UniProtKB/TrEMBL annotation:
It comes from the Bacteria. One of its GO terms (biological process) is response to stress. Gene3D superfamilies: Winged helix-like DNA-binding domain superfamily/Winged helix DNA-binding domain. InterPro entries: HTH_MarR-typ, MarR/SlyA-like, WH-like_DNA-bd_sf, WH_DNA-bd_sf. Residues 1-138 form the HTH marR-type domain. This is MarR family transcriptional regulator. SMART domains: HTH_MARR (SM00347). PROSITE patterns: HTH_MARR_2. One of its GO terms (molecular function) is DNA-binding transcription factor activity.
Length: 156
C-alpha cells in the first residue's frame, strides 16, 4: 500500500525545491521572482484580466492577488485601467516594460522547468505526473468549494 504521508512529504518537499531553484534562476538572470512571474504570465494569458482571474489561476486569495498586482504596478510591470463592463473592478495589463521582462524571463523559466521536470523523468512519466496532479488539483478545488458551501450553510 502506498504511504500517503510519504507521498505528501515528497510532493511538498519537491515543490519547495522546485520553487527555490526556479525562483533563484529567475532572480539571478532576470531580476524577478517566480511569484511575480506567475502573476505576469496570468495577466499575459488572460484577456481583460482582473485581479480575481489572477487569484483563481494561481489559487490564492483575492487580497493576495491584489497585493501581487500592487507590487507589479509599483515596479512598472503592469497597470490597472477601469473595466468598461464593470465599474467595481479593474483590468490589469502588462506595461511595455512588463512585456519585455516577460519576453526575457519566460525562456529562463521554461529552461529550468525542462531541466528539473522533463530531464529526470523518462518517457511518459512526466505526462502521467501532469495528469495525476491536474486530477488532484481539480478534486481539491471541488472539495474546497463543497466545504466552503457546507460551512456557509452551517453558519446560517
Amino acid at each position: 500500500m502506498t504511504d500517503l504521508r510519504q507521498v505528501f512529504d515528497d510532493l511538498v518537499r519537491f515543490e519547495t525545491i522546485l520553487w527555490g531553484a526556479v525562483d533563484g534562476r529567475l532572480q539571478d538572470e532576470c531580476g524577478i521572482g517566480l511569484a511575480s512571474l506567475n502573476g505576469m504570465l496570468v495577466i499575459d494569458a488572460t484577456p481583460l484580466c482582473r485581479v480575481h482571474d489572477i487569484a483563481r489561476a494561481i489559487a490564492i486569495t483575492v487580497g493576495g492577488a491584489s497585493q501581487a498586482v500592487d507590487r507589479l504596478e509599483s515596479a512598472g510591470l503592469c497597470a490597472r485601467r477601469a473595466n468598461p463592463s464593470d465599474r467595481r473592478s479593474s483590468i490589469v495589463e502588462l506595461t511595455p516594460k512588463g512585456v519585455e521582462l516577460l519576453r526575457v524571463a519566460a525562456p529562463v523559466f521554461d529552461r529550468e522547468l525542462d531541466r528539473l521536470l522533463r530531464a529526470p523523468l523518462p518517457g511518459t512519466a512526466l505526462t502521467h505526473m501532469a495528469d495525476a496532479l491536474s486530477t488532484l488539483r481539480r478534486s481539491a478545488a471541488t472539495q474546497a468549494v463543497s466545504s466552503a458551501a457546507g460551512g456557509a450553510s452551517k453558519r446560517s
